[in-house]
Amino acid sequence: THRFLYLIYKNSEQFIKLAGRTSDFAKFTDVWQFNEYGKPYISVAKKISHHNTERYSAVNTNNEHTIELRFFRGTMLFSGVMSALELAHASVEYTRDINISDIQMGALSWEWFSDYIRVNNGLYPNLYERIGRVNTLTINSKQEINA
Questions:
Q1: Could you please report the per-residue DSSP string of 12-70?
Q2: 1, 66, 73, 125: which one has the fewest Cβ atoms less than 10 Å from its Cβ?
Q3: 78-106 burial string, b = 16+ CB within 10 Å, else e?
Q4: Taking the model in full, what pTM does it have?
Q5: Cross-strand pairs, 121
Q6: In which band, very low, low, confident or very high, does the pLDDT at 7 lie, cut at 50, 70 and 90?
């Protein structure tokens, strides 16, 4: 769970691009803490324990047996729905077997994760195609991304 959450929050800009929306109902800011010098860092400890976390965060962990990804934009397009499902599946499968050595080398970076999707493009065809379309977008927090 920690690896999964850290992948999503560490790469929030790319996940927002792929998901297609920013919203107050799917905040990515609930994991940021500050050390004694004021330097921000990501802490997902509260989210893993399912206590004292915000329901309206990008990844809602309030429920004991489920994790809710709240950052996807609604769509009626088959490719959009499949892309969202593939992103959720790829995130889980990618983080399932990586270890500390992999993480120290950068396995939770967007580059490593997107390489995993490219290598497994047969398993994630809609996501692979969407990554190609949204890779060059910039994010304006007040707009939805219509890629």
A1: HHHHHHHHT---TTSBS-TTEEE-TTS-EEE--HHHHTTSS--TTBSEE--SSS--EE-
A2: 66
A3: eebebbbebbbebbeebbeebeeeebeee
A4: 0.79
A5: none
A6: very high
Q: Tokens 């800009």 label which residue?
A: 13
Among the listed residues 62, 58, 54, the one whose alpha carbon sits nearest the alpha carbon of residue 72: 58
Largest CA distance in the chain: 48
Assess whether pLDDT exceeds 90 at residue 31: no
Q: Is residue 110 classed exposed, middle or buried when 0-12, 13-18 and 19+ CB atoms within 10 A define those classes?
A: middle
The candidate with the shortest Cα–Cα distance to 122, out of 77, 72, 98, 86, is: 86
CA–CA separation, 18 and 12 (whole Å): 10
